[in-house]
Design goal:
Layout: H1 5-11, E1 25-31, E2 36-41, E3 50-54, E4 70-74, E5 85-89, E6 99-100, E7 104-107, E8 123-131, E9 134-143, H2 151-154, E10 164-166, E11 205-206, E12 211-212, H3 215-233, E13 242-249, E14 260-266, E15 271-276, E16 281-285, E17 291-297, E18 309-316, E19 319-324, E20 329-334, E21 340-341, E22 347-350, E23 360-366, E24 371-376, E25 382-386, E26 400-401, H4 405-409, E27 416-419, E28 435-439, E29 444-448, E30 454-459, E31 468-473, E32 479-483, E33 492-498, H5 504-526
Helix pairs in contact: 1-5, 3-5
């Protein structure tokens, strides 16, 4: 869910973003069943700040368990406002699945593979440092150790009830759960650091202006509850709320950049890849269309007489899958900027029998379970879903049709597909299962569920005369379309963004602002 800057302004003037220090963040909730937690920040966090997490035991000088791993969180390109709640989920899943609701979460360095978070005898730290094993400043910690005076906390220079939290054996199923700290906060005003929870909020004293500002924590608690309820009700991203916010020409690159036919988002690189249907290679670009690198296709299989590259999916870690429309084959390869790949020698899998110019037009990867969705253009149209294995001799496909696309969708053709599961705000909602289907001939982008029911539509008939053939989405829900040059000098990238609409958390933070007004009035009267 998108945080409201307007509501935060109503609560209190934000402090200037500055380097984090101990106690500037706190755990609001955790879940040991689904391996995740949520945190609130008490200060503005500067853009591109890196925070590390580890559930390794700290003995005062080093982490001691070689089987544990660490995670790094880059906060992203924008300042995170004080009072914001950030949710971290699926930390025990594959590297391409772990995620943060704001910024990017990734594995940090080498180590074991035990990323799970237990509801007993476990401690997780948030810290600054030069790496996931070299902390310089412990920000906060959460422990489920049975001993409330855990050495894991004191060894890190933290104190339960001041800048660390103790929740022995407390975790719920199906979501993030918060509980009040068992220990009271420090009575020393200069050391008072509140630990937020879903049910109780505490006061933080700012020594700068001697004003008690509890609104940010109160808003964070309300925001957590409102977001949980709002997520339960989400079944569509509502394309009707989207508008074009970017329009960029793509480099021709000696014709490699022409005839753009597919695009995919690389979360761990925060970039896009696209291909042209002449099959010359793949291009990496920024989110605003600047070329970052290229990789040439040096040799297609002999059976590919047209080298008709029409589908592209990013799997994570630099791994891409490209599909050939007529052979209906998918090829997996590792991207190397400036390099080349002989697709004839790449691991591949056949999704269907060889057809004419009506075969596979798009493919998308579902990071939740490693499955794929693809679309066949026409005669007949098809939306397929299932698993793919890739081997040099030809892997195995379990892709099957989800429904009768010709009769259900009512579209003139199918040009590309994108799963919505990568969108962070949709995690755990019905909408995460939805698909975006692009139809060049109908000049529409439609959102459908897995039974083919159309939930929302974006009409791009007036957007351009160029043929829009590719679609992808990033973790923030921003949509990217690519169009062929179609007789113009260059292919193009179009960016669609959702217009801001009032959400549950907006009202929650406004209520917190009203609470602040009442609290300060009461305090002034008492004085």
């Amino acid at each position: 869910m998108k945080k409201s800057v307007f509501a935060l302004a109503l609560l209190a003037a934000s402090a200037q973003a500055q380097a984090l220090t101990t106690g500037d963040m706190a755990f609001t909730s955790f879940n040991a069943d689904n391996d995740g937690w949520a945190m609130v920040t008490f200060v503005d966090i500067a853009a591109n700040t890196t925070v590390y997490f580890s559930d390794n035991e700290w003995n005062g000088t080093a982490f001691v368990d070689a089987n544990e791993h660490a995670l790094s969180w880059n906060t992203g390109t924008a300042t995170i406002a004080a009072g914001s709640v950030v949710v971290f989920t699926e930390i025990d899943a594959a590297p391409e699945v772990i995620r943060a609701s704001v910024g990017t979460l990734a594995l940090a360095g080498s180590g074991g593979t035990n990323l799970g978070f237990a509801k007993s005898n476990e401690t997780v730290y948030a810290f600054l440092g030069s790496s996931g094993v070299a902390p310089t400043t412990f920000l906060t910690a959460l422990t489920t150790e049975n001993d409330s005076a855990s050495a894991n906390i004191t060894n890190a220079g933290l104190t339960i009830g001041v800048n660390a939290r103790h929740d022995a054996g407390r975790s719920g199923s199906g979501g993030l759960h918060g509980t009040p700290p068992q220990q009271p906060l420090s009575r020393n005003p200069t050391a008072r650091r509140p630990l937020a929870s879903g049910r109780r909020v505490f006061l933080k004293e700012t020594l700068m202006n001697k004003t008690l500002i509890f609104s940010r924590v109160f808003a964070a608690a309300l925001l957590t509850m409102a977001s949980v309820q709002a997520q339960a009700d989400v079944n569509s991203i509502n394309l009707g709320n989207y508008a074009v916010t970017g329009n960029y020409a793509l480099d021709t690159l000696n014709d490699m950049g022409l005839e753009a036919s597919a695009v995919t988002y690389a979360r761990d690189r925060n970039s896009l890849f696209f291909i042209g249907d002449e099959g010359m290679g793949v291009v990496e670009i920024s989110l605003t269309g600047q070329t970052l690198g290229t990789m040439r296709f040096s040799n297609w299989p002999a059976a590919s007489t047209n080298n008709d590259a029409e589908g592209l999916a990013y799997l994570g870690g630099g791994v891409l899958v490209v599909t050939e429309e007529r052979l209906q084959d998918a090829y997996r390869f590792d991207y190397v900027a400036g390099g080349s790949v002989a697709l004839a020698n790449a691991a591949y899998v056949s999704i269907g029998a060889t057809v004419g110019n009506v075969g596979i037009e798009g493919i998308s990867y579902d990071p939740r379970n490693g499955s794929f969705v693809s679309v066949k253009q026409d005669n007949p149209q098809a939306v397929l879903a299932g698993n793919l294995t890739f081997t040099p001799a030809g892997g195995v496909s379990s892709m099957t049709a989800l429904f009768n696309a010709d009769s259900v969708l009512g579209l003139a053709s199918l040009s590309d597909v994108q799963t919505l599961s990568p969108v962070d705000a949709l995690a755990g909602t019905a909408a995460a299962d939805n698909l975006l289907i692009l139809s060049l001939d109908s000049k529409k982008l439609v959102e459908i569920d897995r039974s083919g029911a159309i939930l929302s539509t974006f009409d791009f008939s007036g957007l351009t005369t160029q043929a829009i053939e590719g679609v992808t989405v990033d973790h923030n829900g921003t949509i990217y379309l690519v169009a062929e040059d179609s007789g113009t000098p260059s292919s193009r990238l179009f960016v669609l963004s959702a217009a801001p609409v009032p959400e549950a958390e907006t009202w929650a933070m406004m209520l917190a602002g009203l609470g602040l007004v009442g609290f300060r009035a009461r305090r002034r009267k008492a004085v």
